């Protein structure tokens, strides 16, 4: 199952929550990740290096620790801050490598979603520790194997097979065979009584080993249109509705995602407005991304505009690019689009900078 990226309503701009479904103990401690995109082909994969925000994608593998790592039953979660998320683009599939326990590497597919941005330039602060950050050439190396803790030597058990000397001075006298025979009879009687006691005792089930216990599966909220309508009718807050819409979209329940995005966008969510705009935008519209039968650039521009006027750099970029395409009914589209691209570029939006005339 691919990893999931969301931004809860309580998170500040530029911060995202990543969840990886599956047993969390399969990952190393501390958790280490590497992000790469393969848009140019597998042999030309680029890896994210947030230390250099002006040139963040490189050929060398760069491992780093995420923030706020939490291991819950059935999932691993952590945060990515603005220094990382600023370099990720919506609707782009990335590969997220997570260092596995024992040095193996687990790969998860991460389709990035539009999140509430941050106007400040991206600055990444590496975690504390002498071993960080880590950078390697080519594929990720196997992780270090931690040495086992030394154990105290056990006291050896000595089994005596010959006759033991008796007496205080060890004179070698024969043992008292009569006393030994009486002891054997007594032990046999005790063993028989114990057998009788165990036969009459109410049996108890044997404890189940931890490894044999099945993992609890969290209850899944349905992603039906009826459920989406229910959330809208309940007046779900904008942030929660947007998060629910992302969950619906990842489940390919696009009709429900559309309803939730529109509900959240109408209540001021810039992220939902962008997500709704992508469903209308001719540049991103497809049967895999939108429930609408055809693109509508005018509607896409309207939703992008709302988020752009709220100061969202991603929306400014998308709005400007759409206006410059000449597909909207705005007669000043190209000129207005250029102005919006400049606003996005002024906020550090990399794609907007590239789109500006040289």
Q: Roughly what percent helix?
A: 25-40%
Under the CATH scheme, which architecture of one domain would be assigned? Answer: Alpha Horseshoe
Largest sheet: 5 strands, antiparallel
Order of helices and strands: EEEEEEEEHEEEHHHHHHHHH
Strand content: 5-15%
Intertermini distance: 42 Å
Stated plainly, the CATH topology of one domain is called Serine Threonine Protein Phosphatase 5, Tetratricopeptide repeat
Radius of gyration: 32 Å
- Please tally the β strands and state the result: 11
Would you tell me the overall average pLDDT?
Answer: 78
Question: How would you describe this structure to a colleague?
Answer:
By secondary structure, the protein is an alpha+beta fold. Among the domains are: 4-118, Sandwich (Immunoglobulin-like); 225-350, Alpha Horseshoe (Serine Threonine Protein Phosphatase 5, Tetratricopeptide repeat), CATH 1.25.40.10. The chain is 33% helix and 14% strand. The chain contains ten helices and eleven strands. The chain has a five-stranded antiparallel beta sheet, with no helix packed on it. A hairpin with a 2-residue loop joins β7 and β8 (75-80). α6 runs antiparallel to α7 (297-309) and α8 (313-324) packs antiparallel against α9. The two termini are 42 Å apart. Residues 137-173 and 195-219 have low confidence and may be disordered. InterPro entries: ISR_Activator (IPR052748), Sel1-like (IPR006597), TPR-like_helical_dom_sf (IPR011990). This is Sel1 repeat family protein. It comes from Azospirillum baldaniorum. Residues 121-174 are annotated as: Disordered.
């Amino acid at each position: 199952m691919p990893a999931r990226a969301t931004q809860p309503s309580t998170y500040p701009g530029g911060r995202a929550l990543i969840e990886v479904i599956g047993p969390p103990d399969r990952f190393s401690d501390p958790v280490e990740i590497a992000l790469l995109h393969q848009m140019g082909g597998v042999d030309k994969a680029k890896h994210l290096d947030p230390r250099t925000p002006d040139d963040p994608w490189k050929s060398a593998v760069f491992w780093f620790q995420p923030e706020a790592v939490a291991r819950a039953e059935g999932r691993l979660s952590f945060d990515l801050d603005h220094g990382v998320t600023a370099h990720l683009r919506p609707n782009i599939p990335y590969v997220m490598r997570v260092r596995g326990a024992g040095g193996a590497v687990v790969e998860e597919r991460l389709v990035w979603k539009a999140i509430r941005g941050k106007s400040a330039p991206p600055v990444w602060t590496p975690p504390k520790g002498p071993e960080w950050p880590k950078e390697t050439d080519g594929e990720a190396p196997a992780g270090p194997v931690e040495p086992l803790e030394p154990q105290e030597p056990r006291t050896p058990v000595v089994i005596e097979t010959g006759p033991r000397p008796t007496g205080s001075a060890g004179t070698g006298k024969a043992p008292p065979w009569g006393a030994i025979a009486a002891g054997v009879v007594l032990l046999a009687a005790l063993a028989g009584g114990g057998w009788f006691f165990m036969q009459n005792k109410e049996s108890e089930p044997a404890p189940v080993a931890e490894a044999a216990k099945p993992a609890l599966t969290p209850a899944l909220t349905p992603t039906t249109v009826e459920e989406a309508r229910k959330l809208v009718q309940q007046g779900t807050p904008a942030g929660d509705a947007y998060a629910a819409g992302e969950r619906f979209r990842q489940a390919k329940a696009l009709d429900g995602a559309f309803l939730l995005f529109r509900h959240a966008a109408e209540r001021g969510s810039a992220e939902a407005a962008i997500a709704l705009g992508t469903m209308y935008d001719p540049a991103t519209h497809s049967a895999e991304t939108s429930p609408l039968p055809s693109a509508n650039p005018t509607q896409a521009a309207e939703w992008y505009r709302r988020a752009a006027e709220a100061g969202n750099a991603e929306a400014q970029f998308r709005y400007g690019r759409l206006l410059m395409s000449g597909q909207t009914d705005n007669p000043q589209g190209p000129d207005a689009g250029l102005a919006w691209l400049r606003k996005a570029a002024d906020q550090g939006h990399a794609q907007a900078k590239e789109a500006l005339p040289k």
